Input
Amino acid sequence: MNQRKVRYLLLKKFNKRNGEKSRIMGRRKKSIKITLEHYKLLKFLNQPLLSTGRRRRKRKGGGGEDIDSVTYYPSIIESGQYGKVDEKTPIYTSYYKKLISESQSMKRVINKIRKVSMSDFSVIIEGETGTGKTLIAHAIHELSPRCKEPFVHIDLSAIPETLMESVIFGHEKGAFTGADNKRKGVFRNANKGTVFIDELQNLTNNVQIKLLTVIEEKRFYAIGSSRSVTVDLRILCATNKDLQAEADSGKLREDLYYRLSEFVIELPPLRERKEDITSLADDFLNDACSELGLREKYFADSATDFLLNYEWPGNIRQLKNVVRRAVLECDTNEISRKDFENILTSKKKGDEEPQVLPLKNVTAKALREVESKAIRRALKLNGGNKSKAAIQLEIDYKTLLTKIKDYSITNY
Output
């Protein structure tokens, strides 16, 4: 069924429900008088179909026909409820189809995505590191009426506090020392589309106040500008913290939290969705084989058991990295339990340290342990805020990020 046919069926069904007096068909070059209901329908018909190509539908007795992979129109034609996405609607968008939902907990998450995607609600996505918060945000945008508009992702953990306001709201030339050029900012670049704010708990107080103004009044002032900028955008946020606790402690403004939490999606950790591990691992395995140009590989039964019984503290991101590495390092077509154990075990055979080390190596090891401990302590005291931790440690922000990566500091 092509897109023109879908629109025709929608108009036909609308006319049948509303009688002959309100009959309207999509004819070009004809002046017609339309009602408010007609206007709403025609406005919806201008929304993209989100078709991702064609697929093959089998018929009894062999053969088949090509049909469009349409995102949400099938349910609309059946129910007559324009713009609604129900739990039975087949969706074939590029990000949405990556969501694996064998477990009941993840099925509930996907059902929430279907419900909230067609609205303009602000959404907070909560979950541990590596659970797929960015993928969820992309899926919500992709299923929304704003899908053809910009999707701008901003990671607050990678932005120094002193530059955060400029990056988000922009600045005029000469607004401050070093502002040699005018900067639009994230919100202006995302106008009409969606802004995805990652690591929301790192927002500074000044930015929190301006963000509240954007949500309430749809406008803001760039740094150094006396003219307000009007924007129309949807805000999605992600965090691995308990934002309600952050609001209660005063780190996050309560009024901002209540504005942003119109809809909350809580992502379960991978250890609570064991049913999805096998499917996820198979997808990562096939993708890695295609990427590396290798023959198809498969998991031995022992390897599958290992994947199901491991706790996966790094969640889906860790599972993906482990499978990709196993594909690269395994010399046979069968990936065994031992391959995963060698990757995940901290010390392997032959890696034991000699009893006497050179003094230089001993000093370097001791320094790493001391620095790692100090960084973890600073991050914990500052609630994970890297900018404050860098100031307390009296080191540069970029240096702190480098050391966090070098020392593999994840839990703080």
About this structure: The mean pLDDT is 78.
